[in-house]
Amino acid sequence: MFLDFFLLLKNDGIPVTIREYLTFLEALDKDVVEYSVDDFYFLSRTSLIKHEHHLDRFDLLFGYYFEGIEKIDMEELMKIPEEWIRKSFVNELTEEDKKMIKAMGGLDKLLERLKELMETQKERHQGGNKWIGTGGTSPYGAYGYNPEGIRIGQEGSRNRRAVKVWDKREFKDLDDGVELETRNMKMALRRLRILTREGTKEELDLDKTIDKTSRNAGLLELEMAAAKKNNVKVLLFLDIGGSMDDHIELCSRLFSAAKYEFKHLEHYYFHNCLYESVWKNNIRRLQEAIPTFEVLHTYNSDYKVIIVGDASMSPYELLYQNGSVEHNNDEAGFVWLERLKNQFPDMVWLNPAPIDEWRYTESIGMVREFMKDRMFPLTMGGLQQAIKALKDKKVKFEGH
Amino acid sequence: MKFEGTDSYISTRDLNLAVNASITLERPLIIKGEPGTGKTMLAFEVAEALGKEIITWHVKSSTTAQQGLYEYDAVSRLRDSQLGDERVSDISNYIEKGKLWEAFESKKQVVLLIDEIDKADIEFPNDLLQELDKMEFYCYELQKTITAKHRPIIIITSNNEKELPDAFLRRCFFHYISFPERDTLKSIVKVHYPKLEKKLIDNAMNVFYELRGVDGLKKKPSTSELIDWLKLLIVGKVTESELGNLDLTEKLPPYAGALLKNEQDHDLLTRIRLRFRR
């Protein structure tokens, strides 16, 4: 029952599990809903979706599954120029797909057959292995399992349908496709803990209590101690603007994760490379620039430093004075990085740029070398390693 | 036994259904949404509508899962033993029951509100998995299993400060209270101020939605702010024409402090005004 729908959700990246599916069926079984599509939609949403950022995708899929295909205006679809279908279609193909298409007689034949089918098929179809429809194994239609299938009606046709609740897509703003969830990040950051006892004494210190009580000839004498708290201090430098715009979402996630995980967290922004000034508020960067020396003098070497940046810049910015793209800097970027390194022995660099691109950018290599291979990619694994590196100086990044 | 909203709480069809599904299937319901959309209120209203008692467990950053079950006060027992107190021989005198235990033990079904679960440690929900699933837990000190007599209706609210673990979410129903649409909001206002002039409400709502539409506000005003603001408008005898002719680009609405609670947001509006004037 509704297994296709469940599988559709699952295949499209919504993390539904068997357990939720069974709950959903159980609710149907117990007549939680009367027979109305709206209620059915609400019930499936409340039982299958557990994150608000999946709501939008769910609305879309629900729309496709329960009334998608029959309302696509076939004639409208026929008007789509063939080139257009072919173009976007070819872009999506992998090498393997291409081989399969060859096996089926080539792309032209596939498209020809699609046209033929569109002309003969007039009603909604779902499952099966021949017609255009949803969830089947036919090569034509939406969300099929046939790898060489042609997708129809996953984007362009939606607006021709009557607007239902799920078609309103009111949760659009909440959707996000970023893989690194804040929760995972927090779990990784959490490893960076330095537990110290500070503050009011509210925990029973068992060892000392036993010790004191025995000295006291068995008469109970309590000894309290302060609870352990995470006292790690972190200084975060974030590269912002320019090539970093691509990674801004990821960085802000890291930032919000870090903000909740560390009590002592200070952050500063810089652009491309660290120079004589940094700033705290990006909107007012020009008015409120803070001399980097001031930062160096404020925080002692207990602070662990995490620099987040793609390190993609012209090598001049690192090597020469007046090399900056923005202003005339009296001292080269490396001079400033060196100062930072001397002040804060525990320093790592997180790079959001995909690791495959690292070797093509000269400046990344230079910074990596400068950091003595303590530059890590901003991925789950990279973050974990970086945190390890902050605690253990021997840890290095061993990628290509 | 169905929840359909109450006289003082306007609830939408999808929310009713989520509540009813969770009651019927005896699974916890997680409520998320913008601050001020009535997440916590819901539990109280459900309790009232169904005529049940409510037990609330407010979660703080230092709350542990164990505190919800029970706490064993070993220290005072030790102390009593030295004073020769009779109570010592019975360990149950030193077990302090938590909210969950209370809810499990209750003779009638109760509503249990676990408020702001995301305030606690990131592992907190995981520690409650078994307890909420099976509705039972084991008390080591008493060597017995505490099982719910009647599975309580559990409503959990979250403000999204921390992501909740998937294993936990799988066991719950989920509902996201989105910001009410105009019509819903109107009926919410009506419930709170039945005698308010229609014209005033209309004008106030216009101002309110316009304000919500300003880009870049740190904290958009929400339902609870609107209701507070209306109260001030009534007390301050603001007339509908005062609001009707109000141009946000010229001046702030009266009692704007009730709607915008952030200094920077006030600044932002002032800046926008200045720009328009130029």
Report on this structure.
The complex is a heterodimer of chains A (400) and B (278). With 400 residues, chain A is of the alpha/beta class. Helix content of chain A is 42%, strand content 14%. Residues 69-78, 83-91, 122-164 and 174-179 of chain A have low confidence and may be disordered. In chain B, 44% of the residues lie in helices and 15% in strands. In chain B, 33% of the residues are buried. Chain B is of the alpha/beta class and 278 residues long. Chain B has a five-stranded parallel beta sheet, sandwiched between helices. The A-B interface holds A 15, 17, 19-20, 23, 26-27, 30, 32-33, 38-39, 42-43, 45-47, 49-52, 55, 170-171, 174, 181-183, 186-187, 190, 204, 219-220, 222, 260 and B 13-14, 17-18, 20-22, 24-25, 27, 29-30, 32, 74-75, 78-79, 82, 122, 161-166, 169-176, 178.
Offer a concise description of the structure.
The complex is a heterodimer of chains A (400) and B (278). Helix content of chain A is 42%, strand content 14%.
- By secondary-structure content and strand pairing, the structural class of chain B works out as alpha/beta
Question: Main beta sheet of chain B, described?
Answer: 5 strands, parallel
- The level of helicity of chain A is 40-55%
Give the tally of β-strands of chain B.
9
Largest interface: A-B, 36 and 34 residues
Estimate the strand proportion of chain A: 5-15%
Task: Estimate the mean pLDDT confidence of chain B.
Answer: 84
Write down the overall geometry of chain B: elongated
- Mean pLDDT of chain A, rounded to whole units? 72
Outline the biggest β-sheet of chain A.
Answer: 5 strands, parallel
